[in-house]
Every structure is written in structure tokens, then in C-alpha cells.
Design brief:
The chain has 7 helices and no strands. The model has no long low-confidence stretch (mean pLDDT 84).
């Protein structure tokens, strides 16, 4: 009896619809775990890059030297580094143009940083909707397989003169495996989605704070150059 009710046996003996449901859930689980590992590495790298770059930025290093280091390829540009690079690049470009007001230069740099910030956040949010979808729908998909399997089991029993628990149990057990697989696919996806969403919000706050601080630094430089010009 034990071997007859093993997981492998139950999956193999399930009906076609239930097997398709299980296959769908298995594929969703595999893709979810692939995204989970990839996003974990991505968020870990983004956090480390932010910590390292902020230390360099506030170490008193000249902004032109920091821009040169970032643009030289010595450091991989990502996250806050890319925001700084794009912003300072635009600042230098606008500053070199004749007749540009200093505050307009700063505003242009801010807009460039905001655009890059949006791109960085889109990248961090990539694949998170898939995890949310798997987490919210997998239990219902598994439940559908279970209901279908139980319906098929009772329909088969209708043709028998005497129905016993021994005849009903295997069919119901086969169907319940679909619900179990739905939960196994959903739980990691929900946990990962919540964790990554929190990490994305934290990084978004740090990026926005950096943009505010960097804009303040650029405004200070613009005022100094304006005073020197006068």
C-alpha cells in the first residue's frame, strides 16, 4: 500500500488534466526559482555597489576624478554609479554650452539622473510581477487540478456496484498532489516577492537620497562658479 501511495506513483497514475496541471505548476516553480536566485544576486550586488560608491562619493574625492574612474571601466557602472555618471555627464555637457544659466545646468543634470533612476528601478522590478503571479495563482491552479481529479474519481466509482475507502483513497490522493504542488510553487514565490519588493523600496529610497544630495552638491558648485564669474 505504501508504494501504491508514493508521490511518484500518484503523479504517474493521475489523469491527463491533472498531469497537465502538475506539469504547469512544476514549470512555474522551476522558472520562479531561476528568477529568485537571479534577483537575489542582483539585489545583493546593487546593495554592495551602493555602499561602496557612497563611501567613495563622500570621501572628499574630486567629482571629475570620480567621474573619470567610473567612466574608465575600472568599476562596473550599475545602480547609483550609473545615476551619478549620467547626471555628471549631462552637467558637464550643459556647462560647456555658452549662455547656459547655472541653475538650468543643474536642472538638466537632475532630469538626466531621474531618467536613469527610472531605468534602474525598472531593471530591479523586472520579473517581480511573474513571482507575484505565481504566488497568487498557483494555489488556485492546483485546486483546479484537485477538483478535477476528485470529480473523475467519483465518476469512475459510479460504475461500480460497491464503493469502498480503498477504491476512493488513491484517486483522491492523486488529486490532492496537485494542491500540494500549487502550494510548493506559491509559497517561495510569495516570500521572494515580498523580500525583493522591500529591497527594491530600500534601494529606491537610497537612490533618491543620493540624487538629492548630489543635486545639492552641483547647486553649490554652480553658485560658486556664478560668484566667480561676477
Amino acid at each position: 500500500m505504501t508504494s501504491d501511495l508514493s508521490i511518484v506513483h500518484l503523479v504517474m497514475q493521475a489523469g491527463l488534466i491533472v498531469k497537465l496541471v502538475m506539469l504547469m505548476l512544476a514549470l512555474a516553480s522551476v522558472v520562479s526559482w531561476t528568477y529568485i536566485f537571479a534577483k537575489y544576486k542582483e539585489f545583493k550586488t546593487a546593495s554592495q555597489v551602493t555602499n561602496t560608491f557612497e563611501k567613495r562619493f563622500w570621501s572628499g574625492i574630486d567629482l571629475n576624478e570620480l567621474h573619470r574612474q567610473v567612466s574608465s571601466g575600472r568599476y562596473d557602472k550599475s545602480g547609483v554609479e550609473e545615476i551619478f555618471y549620467i547626471g555628471f555627464q549631462e552637467y558637464k555637457r550643459l556647462k560647456s554650452q555658452q549662455g547656459m544659466e547655472p541653475m538650468h545646468v543643474v536642472e538638466g543634470a537632475r532630469r538626466a539622473m531621474q531618467a536613469q533612476y527610472n531605468r534602474e528601478m525598472d531593471e530591479l522590478d523586472n520579473h517581480l510581477p511573474f513571482l507575484a503571479t505565481v504566488g497568487s495563482t498557483s494555489p488556485y491552479v492546483g485546486l483546479f487540478g484537485t477538483v478535477w481529479g476528485i470529480m473523475s474519481s467519483f465518476q469512475a466509482l459510479a460504475n461500480m456496484k460497491q464503493a469502498t475507502l480503498a477504491l476512493v483513497a488513491p484517486g483522491i490522493s492523486e488529486a490532492l498532489v496537485a494542491t500540494a504542488m500549487g502550494l510548493l510553487a506559491a509559497i517561495p514565490a510569495v516570500v521572494a516577492y515580498n523580500r525583493f519588493s522591500t529591497n527594491a523600496d530600500r534601494l529606491a529610497t537610497r537612490y533618491e537620497t543620493f540624487m538629492d544630495d548630489f543635486t545639492t552638491v552641483l547647486q553649490r558648485q554652480a553658485h560658486i562658479k556664478l560668484k566667480q564669474a561676477n
